[in-house]
Design a protein that fits this description.
Length: 90
């Protein structure tokens, strides 16, 4: 995997594919930032503004939906990564 960009453009919704996608690879840093923010108890509106570059005041439905889908995908990616590391290690 190439080094992911630090601040890539964000789609309105994260992928829902059952496998890792090029979008996932490009957004590793975004996913890490989302997970860290959630762990710190950050307000979703601030995270949407800073991490996703979306304005929750101007377009709250879009910002909330993007935040939720990307956070869910970030969690899936980390869970999937654990499954992959555990494969064949007996």
């Amino acid at each position: 995997m190439k080094k992911p960009p630090l601040d890539p453009d964000i789609a309105d919704a994260a992928p829902s594919d059952p496998k890792l996608t090029p979008y996932d690879e490009q957004h590793v840093v975004t996913y890490m930032r989302l997970l860290q923010a959630e762990g710190e108890g950050a307000d979703w509106r601030e995270v949407a503004r800073v991490v996703l570059h979306m304005d929750p005041e101007r377009d709250p439905d879009r910002a909330r939906s993007a935040y939720q889908s990307h956070l869910a995908r970030a969690k899936w990616v980390t869970e999937q990564g654990r499954l992959l590391r555990g494969t064949g290690s007996k």
